[in-house]
Amino acid sequence: MSEETQDEPALDQHETTEQERLDGVIAQLRADVAGEDAAVVETAVRRRLDDTGISAEEELIARLVAELAG
Asked: From 1, 5, 42, 67, which residue has the greatest number of CB atoms within 10 Å?
């Protein structure tokens, strides 16, 4: 039996790039808010980016809102 222990949360064991995190956020947003009105989508986009610590330029945010809003 191994004496190794898990000393940190499992998600913290694998480093991800900012692009990988952004791709994940976009995939989640597509599932959660696709087709919603632009105000709902923009709020969700900004919140998710903030929650994950991803800094995004306004151009990217506007593009995501336009792509996801119904």
From this structure: 42
